[in-house]
């Protein structure tokens, strides 16, 4: 399955300009089998996701789930999949892992703004994967991220980090398992059954 793991809606992320209905339609049009909405510190209730799918007349096999993007005290933004509730900002990565041991944690855009993560940070066992390609990295930052991943062989994901309907770069993740529920998505990430879509950065 091809799934977009990082996107934001106008309804629940102040930084986004795309309504959820348009977001879902656009991601499906790009050939994805589903998406996980990752609004900032907000979990979409199951009934709202079901209503979104009905109103958009999406096919039954198109998956819409909710995760969230959480601002931590020490590692910046972290994508959280499988939490039972919205998580406030400001806790450390270690506390996030301790308080939510069963979720999947993905470090979002770690190279943004010229940050150069160390091998120790990238291989921190509290993370289940590292987002290596993101449109909000610069070209140089994406190439550096792919290079580090190829060197150190940690588990990686990719994300389109969608905030606008006219997004030009699309980096969903390839899953080699069938997913219908958030628990299945978490299990697949933790088992490493994911492959990042890295496009032109694969040429590095």
TrEMBL record:
CDD domains, alphabetized: PHP_HisPPase (cd07432)
MF terms (GO), sorted A to Z: 5'-3' DNA exonuclease activity; 5'-3' RNA exonuclease activity
Signal peptide: none
Protein name: PolIIIAc domain protein
Protein's organism: Geotalea daltonii (strain DSM 22248 / JCM 15807 / FRC-32) (Geobacter daltonii)
